Amino acid sequence: MAEQIIIVGLGPGGAGMLTREADEALSAAHEVWVRTARHPVVDELPGLAWKPMDSFYEREDDFSAVYEAIAAEILRLAERPEGVCYAVPGSPRVGEATVARILLEAEKRGLTARIVEGLSFIEPALGALGVDGLEGLHVSDAVDLAARHHPPFPPSAHALVAQLYSRALAGEAKLTLMNQYPDEHPVRLIHAAGTSGQLVEDLALHEIDRSERIAHLTTLYVPPIAGALEEFQETISHLRAPEGCPWDREQTHLTIRGNLMEEAYEVLAALDREDPRELAEELGDLLLQILLHAQIATEAGDFRMADVIAGIDEKIHRRHPHVFGGTKVEGVGQVLSNWEQIKAEERSGMETGGKAKGLFDGVPLALPALEQAVSYQKRAARVGFDWPTIAGVKAKVVEELAELEAAGGEQEREHELGDVFFALVNLARWLKVDSESALRKSNARFRARFGRVEAAAARTGKALKEMTLEELDALWEEAKKAENGE
User: Fold this and answer.
1) Which of the residues 181, 198, 234, 286 could staple to 263 if both were Cys, CB 3.0 to 4.6 A apart?
2) Distance between CA atoms of 191 and 215, rounded to whole angstroms?
3) Cα(first)–Cα(last) distance of the chain, in Å?
4) Where along the chain do its domains lie?
5) How far lies 443's CA from each of 333, 440, 449, 450, in Å?
6) CA–CA dist 176, 10 (Å, integer)
7) Model-wide pTM > 0.70
8) pLDDT, tens digit (0-9, with 9 covering 90-100), for 149-202
9) CATH code for the domain defined by 123-222
10) What does CATH list as the number for 5-120?
C-alpha cells in the first residue's frame, strides 16, 4: 500500500545536497507541501509544484501553535486519496517539531507514513568548524535554550545551538550560556552552513547578539571548557578503581565521615572571610566528599550520583509549586507556610516503626547545637508556635538569666544555661542574625585581639602568666583600638 504521508528532508543547502531518494520522492509528487519556502532547494527546483506553509507563521502567536497548525493541515491532506508529500529543511529527524507531531498522530489514526532522510545542518556545520562530532557533541535548539536559566549540556561538550534566527533570540540565549561560560568565552557563528553563502564568524560569547549576519540559517558553536561534573566523576571513579589510589580504595562511608564535616566547616570559614576564591576552592573540597560517598554507594549497588541529583531535583520541584506549578503565593510568609504544609504531607506518608514522622524529624541529631536550635525554632514558628513580637523574646532571655542566677546545683546550672543559650539563639533568629556565624566571628575577633595582646606582651619581655589582670586589660584595650584603626 502506498504511503499516505511522505516526509522528505531537503538537506541544509541547495539541490546538490539532496539525497537520491529525496530527489526521486520530490520528482514523483504531483505537489510538495513545504514547511517554509525560505530554502535554497525551492529556488533551484522551480519546476516542482511547491506549496509553501509560511502563512501559518503569520497567523499564530507562537511557534508551538504554528507547529500544531501545520501538523493538523498535513494530517488533513493525508486523508485525500493521493495522500501528501511534506518537505522540511535539513533532516526530518533533527529539530523538526512538526514531524514528531505528524508521526504521533498518524499512528493513532492508522495512517501510513514514510520518512525520506535528508542531510541535517549538523554535518556541514561540523565541516565548517573542523570538529569531530564523536568528541562529545551536544545539539540544542536556540528557543529552548533561551527559555532556560542554565544550559542543558555539560561545559566539556562541543555544543551546537541551532535555529538562532534573530539577534533578539541570540541575546536571550547568551544570558543562559553565561550562567556556565565566561563572558569572554570564544564562540563561533556559522551562517548558512552547507550553502554557497556559508560563513563562520568568530566572537566572544557576550557579543553574539551584535552580529548583523544572524538569520534563519545561523547556528552557534560553543567550544568546550573544563568543569563538567561528569569529568570529575571520572576522576573519582578512577581513584577508586583497581589501578587507582590505594588509600582511596580503602575508604568507606564511615572512615571519611569526619572529612565531610571538616570540609563543611571550611566552607563556612570561607563564607565568614567573604573570600570568593577561597569559597570556590572549599566548595570543590566539599563536592569531592559528596562524590566519594556517591562512588562508594555506586560500587555497593546502593545508589548512584544520578539518583542523588534526581532525588533532590524532584524534591525541589515538589516543594516549590509556586515556581514549577500553578500555585499562587503572596510574599515569603506564604511560601514558608506552604513549604511546611508540603513537608508535613511528606512526613505523614513516611512511617518509621509504625509512627508518622514529627515536625522535628529530619533535623540531624549530629548538627552543631546552635544550628539545631535554629532549625527547631524555625520549624515551630512555621506552624505558629512563636512569640508575637520581639519584646517577648527579649523578656525570655532576661527570665532565663534570672533562673540561671537562682540555680543551685551543677546539674540545674547546666540546665538553665542551656535554656539561656536557646533563648539567645531565638533572639538572634528574630534579629535575622545567624547565631553560628555571629559566634564564629566573635571567636575570630577574640583570637585576633588576643594575638595582639601576646605580641605586645612579648615586646615587654614579660610572659603572660607574669602579668597582672590590670596589665592584661590594658593590652586588651590597646588591641581593640588597633583593631578599630585608632
Assistant:
1) 286
2) 8
3) 96
4) 5-120, 123-222, 229-303, 436-483
5) 33, 5, 10, 10
6) 31
7) yes
8) 999 999 999 999 999 999 999 999 999 999 999 999 999 999 999 888 899 999
9) 3.30.950.10
10) 3.40.1010.10
